[in-house]
Design goal:
Layout lengths: L11 E8 L7 E8 L6 H41 L1 H16 L11
Antiparallel strand pairs: 1-2
Helix pairs in contact: 1-2
């Protein structure tokens, strides 16, 4: 447990997430949060609130980055396979959006 009588600044705690892929550029999200100055419930609560906000920001950043990479991959695939694939991908994406969070209906393919 940290010394609560110390006048030194609380150490910074680091939160980070890194994405690496063989086909896309890597990216990292990182943020430093000051450690709670004491073990008092109010200080711990404030720290956990800041951590929660940081995690939400990380999730938003990661989702944007992954969505951009998915779009890049789709564009590369469409260019490689021609326009027919792009049309099929658009239909599949619409079906996925329609059925999001539910079991997929049986396919007639």
């Amino acid at each position: 447990m940290a010394d609560t009588n110390s006048t030194a600044a609380a150490p910074a705690l680091h939160f980070s997430a890194t994405y690496q892929s063989p086909t896309n550029e890597p990216f990292t999200f990182s943020e430093s949060l000051p450690a709670p100055p004491s073990s008092a419930p109010g200080d711990k609560s404030a720290y956990l609130n800041a951590l929660r906000k940081s995690i939400n920001a990380a999730q938003e950043h990661i989702n944007k980055e992954l969505t951009a990479r998915m779009e890049e991959d789709k564009a590369k695939e469409a260019a490689k396979n021609g326009g027919a694939t792009a049309t099929k991908l658009a239909v599949d994406e619409a079906l996925e959006e329609e059925n999001y969070g539910e079991e997929a209906p049986p396919s007639d393919d």
